[in-house]
Write the structure tokens for this entry.
Amino acid sequence: MKSKFQKLGMLLMLMCSSWGIAFAQYDVSGKVTNAGGEPLTGVTVAVKNTNNGTTTDVDGMYTLNISGSSATIVFSYVGFRSQEKQVNGANSSLNISLEETSSELDEVVVSGLATTVKRKNAANNVASISSKDLTGITPQSTFDGALSGKFTGAQISSNSGAPGGGMTFRLRGVTSINAPAQPLFIIDGVYVDNSSIAAGLNVVSDAAGGGSTAQYDQDNPSNRIADIDPGDIENVEILKGASAAALYGSRAAGGVVIITTKKGKQSKGGANISFTQSLGVNTISHPLGLREWDPTKVESYYGPDEVAVYNAAVADGQYYNYEDELYGNTGFVSDSRLSVGGGNERTTFYTSMSHRNEDGIVNNTGYTKTGLRLNVTHQVNKRIDVSLYNNFLRTSADRGFFNNDNTSTTMGISYAATPPWAELHPDAEGNYPNNNYSASNFLQTSALITNNELTNRYIGGASATIKLLTNDQHSLKLV
């Protein structure tokens, strides 16, 4: 009997020992830093393939409770390459240094003001582009111009060659015959008005006189999103799926363009200062040149009475290259940008000042833009973060008189109908003759027209993030 009780006792001891091993628990703690040794706040620290996880505090410290003899811990942070480490009860202290990499940034995309989601889990079709790909080597004059050709499914077409914008921006084509088809623009969580004000050119050009009631669309309006400085943008994400409306309502029927601007980063050696400047010229890309005329062609097109006028003009040397006179200017382009950013583990800032001046290839056309930006983020304590965004923009665009026309008064259409022997130059007193071949003298129009579009704009916002609950399995925050 004694032997049986001894065997039973040993069996119970072994079972208890096995249960102790199976249900062993211990804490793993440590610090997460970047390559420079600076602590990273908000790094996700989780046991692989489980809901057991936590985040690092303001000092980059974490503590994670582990169940079992060993586990694989995954360290992940936006903008840094994820790492996996094996732990057990023998190595309960684990410090990690994460390597920064821009190639990982597209793993998490913004789908709402307070919502981010991994791309593979997103219900929407999301396309994104970074600041490097947006601006490239040559600075673009406008934001919509910088986006052109960068997104599949985004139709960005130019309505005018005049400096300062004038582009149509649509996603997935026209979705309504009456409502605006442009997408909804959101910058740092702020809904941005992209309304355009018609210049009133339709009164002269009668562009909508062919039966169209859409006078506004025929009046060469420019997108006001063109005001945004491409150099201030960190990344752009486009939600093209129909479910975007579930997040933003009916205004998102044409899609959503989410713009995130640059923010300051921690820096030990003082503020990071950057100054860039680019210089260039604008010239006509593909001049058509003079058409070859002879008396036979002149008679067949203008009639026999015009042949004498043609012959007299050729004899007197009054044969002009009006294409060169109208479009032949060499416009100087300059783009200057100064940015300063930095901060510590609690407060970061980013400020920029930019100025662009662009002369057009036609007289009295050009574009200037001056921008000032200040972005500040501050961690009040371990639970509360605040952010402040400020952007002031002043743009001035001289757009000339071009585009759709039913009266032959715009410069391009008037020029196309005028032969090179027509005399359109002013006399000694500055008086321009009438154009006998079209409704307007395009040299007079280019010299005297005023079509200026001046915009002073402030876009600003503030946000506060409060972490209401954080534990191993759940996190809840209020924005």
In short: DSSP finds ten helices and 23 strands in the chain. Confidence is low (pLDDT under 50) at residues 14-23.
